[in-house]
Amino acid sequence: MELLDNLALGFSTATSLANLGFCLIGVLLGTLIGVLPGxxxxxxxxxxxxxxxxxxxxxxxxxxxxxIYYGAQYGGxxxxxxxxxxxxxxxxxxAIDGYQxxxxxxxxxxxxxxxxxxxxxxxxxxFLVAIFAPPLTAIALQFGAAEYFSLxxxxxxxxxxxxxxxxxxxxxxxxxxxxxxxxxxxxYTGTPRFTLGIREYADGLNFVAVAVGVFGVAEILRxxxxxxxxxxxxxxxxxxxxxxxxxRRMAAPIVRGTIIGSALGILPGxxxxxxxxxxxxxxxxxxxxxxxxxxxxxxxVAGPESANNAGAQTSFIPMLTLGIPANPVMALMIGAMIxxxxxxxxxxxxxxxxxxxxxxxxxWIGNLMLIILNLPLIGLWVKLLTIxxxxxxxxxxxxxxxxxxxxxTNIYDLYAVAFFGLLGYLLTKLRCEPAPLLLGFVLxxxxxxxxxxxxxxxxxxxxxxxxxxISAGLLFIALxxxxxxxxxxxxxxxxxxxxxxx
Amino acid sequence: xxxxxxxxTNGICAALFIFLGGFFALQSLDLExxxxxxxxxxxxxxxxxxxxxxxxxxILVEAVRxxxxxxxxxxxxxxxxxxxxxxxxxxxxxxxxxxxxxxxxALIASFASGRMRPLTALVLSAGLTLFAFLVFSYxxxxxxxxxxxxxxxxxxx
Lengths: 502, 157
Prior knowledge:
The complex is a heterodimer of chains A (502) and B (157).
Chain A: H1 2-14, H2 17-34, H3 41-52, H4 58-83, H5 89-141, H6 145-162, H7 167-181, E1 184-185, E2 192-193, H8 207-225, H9 244-266, H10 271-286, H11 298-314, H12 316-322, H13 328-339, H14 347-351, H15 353-385, H16 389-408, H17 411-429, H18 435-457, H19 464-467, H20 469-486, H21 488-494
Antiparallel strand pairs in A: 1-2
Helix pairs in contact in A: 1-15, 2-3, 2-4, 2-15, 3-4, 3-8, 3-13, 3-16, 4-5, 4-13, 4-15, 5-9, 5-10, 5-11, 5-12, 5-15, 6-7, 6-18, 6-20, 7-18, 8-16, 8-17, 9-10, 9-11, 10-11, 13-18, 16-17
Chain B: H1 8-29, H2 43-65, H3 76-82, H4 84-92, H5 98-110, H6 118-139
Helix pairs in contact in B: 1-2, 4-5, 5-6
């Protein structure tokens, strides 16, 4: 069995003492930062990203990064349940019923249900990744420049469709991201582009600096807008063990959540967030007593948490096989791979099998560590919630500065952090989602390279994109997605924030 | 007919995108454009910049026709102290050295919140500097000079 051989290779890579250690550190750090209120998984990863570069080995560094991801997500759920302050929209769903459970004195049970649901979903979806990644890789190896170009268009268009708010703004963010991504030296002619004559930007804008600025610094500024007192009413969490009744009620939602999450997670453009909402809606609809939802329903925690985690996991499939990020976190992962000297795409599986399968195996190990560690450590995380915010952000800013500087020891990267912090905050204030910008930033150079290569191969004939069947199919999908989001009915629902003048 | 009004949020948003698009378009024009067959370094960015300007124009039209959510509270104090922190670190990390620079960076960022008291900020920054010394400089061995040439020479460190 090839699958078993591959998994065996993965587990032997991931269970080396060093890699287990890095996974553990990643999970702990991820939870530590993720649990801080108002800081979501993406911001957490952006801030911790530079630390992983201190490890020389790309496998260990990506395993640690994946650990940070799971940790950050779990930390986010903890904050959502205990103080009703979700770090990002995927845990916003958990906050609805989780916080109510906590108010009813069942915080421990809610946290345990979230952990168990996540672990189950993580286990199933790890296997899904292992099963589906190799055939997809085989297909992707047939891709030429035209297909890659069209595939990236699909990814970018989907990220637009799944962003909150105005579609036009999301499109503009993608285009701006693409433009920022191609700052630096042109690969064909060696001409410096948009560097403003600054030699330090000749290698392009530092990905870490952009991510830390747009997600990390902008998030801190947003939190500084209203410095209201946080009330942590739950100072001690007891009764971690769910009751027999809880187990009975959570089983089916966990399975359904896992299915929904796994399916939606593969979608490019942030399926995991959608998954949590979809699962909550499904559970509420099929529940015998929907009135309980919003008042602390076990199903309302178990389903979305499982869906969220399953989606987080399966979003690795397009990243690992095609090198296309499904969400900002995967964009961060791809950025990390490029910095480590790995070219993301279908070749990773054949050229670096230990890396490929090691990451897949470490997903499961990371989830196992989370459930073993976090339930006993919950007291510590609760204490962290009582640290006032004004103490946290000098610490975060200092670590971000050290981290970004340590990547390339380029002081201009630090100026970029400030600039992108300002730009990110400004754009958030103008109701523009930062996620499409980051996807565009990562894909910009790849998109341009493949476009130019495809045009040279086709001798300047742009019909190459529609005469090659796979490319045509992909472009058709992209077009269909765009048409659907612009349909009046769908558009109205997406843009209900606009108040039309009569 | 209603008086001409423009929505602030979307108006600024459109202006920003058009400005950025214009910047990239002008810069692209200085580069070699090439043909669709052999694209020069300016081709792709010029196309993108024009698209960005067009999208900005659409947002501008929306801004005139519709009203959207107000911008809301802006974290001026936060921006004043948070954004200079990494810039200060960049300006001084080589001259002052890693440890004094990180101490002052943390101190600057501390004042972003109105709730921070000066003494707390000093203690916090000092603790952070000690931590950074132990973890980044000593344990991880990052190759930063602990004290830079701007300072008088420091024995035994």
